[in-house]
Amino acid sequence: MPVVISLINLKGGVGKTTLTVALAEFMAVLHGLKVLVIDLDPQTNATVALIDENEWRRRNVRGQTVLSAFTDRFSKYRIFSPDEAIIKNVSNVGGGIEGLDLLPSSIDLIEFQDDFVSEPDRFRGDLQAVLRDEMQDTLKEYDVVLIDCPPDLGFITRNGILISNYYLIPVIPDVLSTYGIPQIINRINRLKKQAGIRIKPLGLVVNKFRVQASVHRNQLRVLKANAARVGYQRVFASIISENGQVAAVMDSSLSFPSLQKKYGYNRPYEEYKQLTQEVLAYVRR
Ligand SMILES: Nc1ncnc2c1ncn2[C@@H]1O[C@H](COP(=O)(O)OP(=O)(O)O)[C@@H](O)[C@H]1O
Ligand SMILES: [Mg+2]
């Protein structure tokens, strides 16, 4: 069975997508793992970091994104097929990384989500388990599944939680960015009880760290001290520094011959490499 990890934070801009993509690439290239990225965020950032935007458009028109898994619930016809929707060997490294696959998201999920909130009656049935029902068999083909979640705990994110063994919380170590962490833990714990699932916190990944910033150093100390009390298990020892290169390379119109070329030979390449090893060490126990 695969290890399934959801990347969750109620805040946007903390690095969920960037970490999802980087961890997936490093796991596939350096560890030879078969990895599936599921993009649950209607902003489709992970999708367009991993495949060409025109390719995404073609697939969106044909309904081969995660959206149709949801809309199929309200239609006589079935459009979604994991085999057709999953794109194989994605990434802007090496013309695509063997063993790294993507289930793309759709911008149209926003409208679907809005309809769900404004017309709950139209949406009979439980939309929380769609991904589990549709993807159960397909997931078995992978070693690791990484889920990039939208910045909320609505029904789309809950679909990710329901099929996950672990959740990982990326944070920027400042006061505002770490404010909502107890809420994430509490709400996932509540959902765990309701749904009878076993998802476990994997830890906090500190991202965009600036060693010169005293607020970052202080907040890092606070986060480490609070791990047990708040219940997020740990702060990963591998920390990702703020680095302009990372922001520039998440663009599928660029192409890189290797991970080193994409992520730089020093930082952030070494940081992601360390973090990937650390994550794998905890999930393989
Ligand atoms: N380590 C980093 N250093 C500098 N910029 C980063 C880093 N990680 C992410 N970013 C940038 O910060 C922004 C938000 O990151 P993103 O991964 O999209 O966050 P989220 O998915 O949580 O909204 C993006 O522009 C991204 O390129
Ligand atoms: Mg994102």
Care to give the gist of this entry?
45% of the residues lie in helices and 11% in strands. With 285 residues, the protein is an alpha/beta fold.
| CATH class category | Alpha Beta
**Category by helix and strand content:** alpha/beta
Q: Helical content, roughly?
A: 40-55%
Computed CA radius of gyration, to the nearest angstrom: 18 Å
The strand count comes to 6
Can you tell me the residue ranges where pLDDT is under 50 for at least 5 consecutive residues? Answer: none
Strand content: 5-15%
Corresponding CATH architecture: 3-Layer(aba) Sandwich
The distinct bound ligands, ions and cofactors come out as: adenosine-5'-diphosphate, magnesium ion
**Shape annotation:** globular
SSE string, helices as H and strands as E: EHEHHHHEHHEHEHEHHHH
- Termini gap: 14 Å
Average pLDDT, all residues: 94
CATH level-3 fold name: Rossmann fold
Textual characterization of the structure:
With 285 residues, the chain is an alpha/beta fold. It has one domain (3-283): P-loop containing nucleotide triphosphate hydrolases (Rossmann fold, 3-Layer(aba) Sandwich), CATH 3.40.50.300. It contains 13 helices and six strands. Strands 3-2-4-1-5-6 form a six-stranded parallel sheet, with helices on both faces. The longest helix has 18 residues, at 214-231. The protein is globular. The chain starts with a strand and ends with a helix. Bound molecules: adenosine-5'-diphosphate and magnesium ion.
